[in-house]
Write a structure and sequence with these properties.
alpha+beta; 33% strand
């Protein structure tokens, strides 16, 4: 079940961030995040306060989370988007995470499907998101789900220098 997050979900979301950061530090995954910089518990709290944090719960456990809104980060202005989309018709998913202990169970795919249904309900036919160029599993998943990569923006992103931000889009 995917639902809007509540304050009681913050610790679980932060624990997923921590688990991903630990895997990155140990070497088996490359997401491009930095502990203490992004994402942090404060990242989740700010998303919750704006009413934009969503969680996927299974058997009482938070297994995935993401922020969904219409905010196109400033770096998107440097991407050669395929579709010239009016801002009010764009929905963006940010920081989609799945508990690393539970990867491979289809949670990310289900979360993206939820995001796409939300976009349809909001009359937002243009979907946008981003990931780090080093995050090959995410790029592979998004390609399989029909997202295109119109460009890569070199930037400081979420306080992390030297990011090659892969911009992704899909038109419903």
């Amino acid at each position: 079940m995917i639902r809007k997050a509540t304050a009681r979900d913050i610790a679980a979301v932060a624990a997923i961030y921590d688990a991903i950061l630990t895997k990155e530090e140990q070497g088996p995954v490359t997401v491009g995040w930095l502990r203490g910089v992004y994402p942090t518990e404060q990242t989740a709290r700010e998303s919750l306060e704006r009413g934009e944090l969503y969680v996927m719960e299974e058997n009482g456990r938070i297994v995935a989370a993401a922020k969904i809104n219409q905010e196109q980060v400033p770096e998107y202005a440097h991407c050669p988007w395929r579709y010239e989309a009016p801002p009010e018709q764009v929905l963006v998913i940010h920081t989609l995470v799945v508990d690393p202990a539970l990867q491979g169970k289809g949670y990310a795919t289900a979360f993206v499907a939820y995001y796409e249904e939300m976009a349809r309900a909001m009359n937002c036919p243009y979907l946008r998101m981003d990931t780090n160029s080093h995050n090959i599993p995410a790029r592979t998943l998004y390609k399989r789900l029909g997202y295109e990569e119109p460009g890569i923006v070199d930037c400081v992103f979420n306080g992390i220098p030297g990011v090659h931000l892969v911009c992704l889009e899909k038109k419903l």
